[in-house]
Amino acid sequence: MARWVITVEHARGDVYDVVPVARFDGTREQAHRRLYETACTHRFSSTLREQGRDVFRRDDGTYYVEIQGALTEYRLRYCLAELVWSAGERAGGAGRSGTAARHTSAGRPDPDGTVPDYWRPPGE
Fold it and tell me: Half-sphere exposure of 79 toward its Cβ, with a 13 Å CA cutoff?
């Protein structure tokens, strides 16, 4: 199983923010299902009196959400990200999940041996 995070991205005026909504372990299918459920049900603001919600799936696998409130409309994007490298307990490494990320002999991240060749130093 992989470690996942769901984030919500939103802008308010000149301020752009990315907020983690959920962190969990699961399969890719479980993660995509949870992303969809989150886009449909996440309460973005505790003060928002939601009157309607439209959820659109984008070509890149994210969800664009328009939430109609009593006074304003929010436009959000919900995204899914898989943990591919971690260094230490804070980032979700061995101390947190019980599994350590793989590394090349030079100490660089190598998730499941899938690091593209252009990331590898010569001779590795």
Answer: 13
pLDDT digits (tens, 9 = 90+) for 2-43: 999 999 999 887 889 999 999 999 999 999 999 999 999 999
Taking the C-alpha atoms of residue 91 and residue 88, their distance in angstroms, rounded to an integer, is: 6
84: left (phi over 0), alpha (psi -120 to 50) or beta: alpha
Provide the H-helix boundaries in 6-123. Answer: 28-41, 94-97
Of 76, 80, 60, which is closest to residue 16 (Cα–Cα)? 76
Instruction: Give the C-alpha separation, 117 to 108, whole Å.
Output: 13
How much is the pTM? 0.71
Q: How far is CA 9 from the centre of its chain?
A: 10
Q: Residue holding tokens 């002999």?
A: 105
Beta strands in the chain (DSSP E): 2-12, 15-26, 50-57, 63-69, 73-82
Q: In this structure, which amino acid lies at residue 120?
A: R
Joined together, the tokens standing for residue 7 give: 């984030």
Instruction: In whole angstroms, give the CA distance from residue 68 to residue 49.
Output: 8
